[in-house]
Input
Amino acid sequence: MSDEKTKNIQEVQFLEQNLQNLFFQKQAFQMELTETQSALREIESSKEDAYKLIGQLMIKVPKSKIIEELSEKDKLLNLRIKNLEKQENSFSEKLEQLRGKILSK
Output
């Protein structure tokens, strides 16, 4: 086996490992996003202020403040997921190119 083919195979393995890591990160962010959106819907339908855990303390917080915080978290999580998807697409394209090189030789 040529050195270039060996190098390409190693790079394929590296990209596959990175894709798997990205998948797990994306899955974790998607779960957190689902929880955040659920909490946001609940607080928006609530008529009262809510309580927030800060360390071992539970503090009453105005509804508007919690909505603001959850909305910001929602935006941030969506942004992170989009960035991970861009990385996934980039890695997938490169992976397919490398697989094509390996198989054509």
Remarks:
- The longest strand covers residues 50-54.
- The chain is about 80% helix and 10% strand.
- Helices lie at 3-45, 63-104.
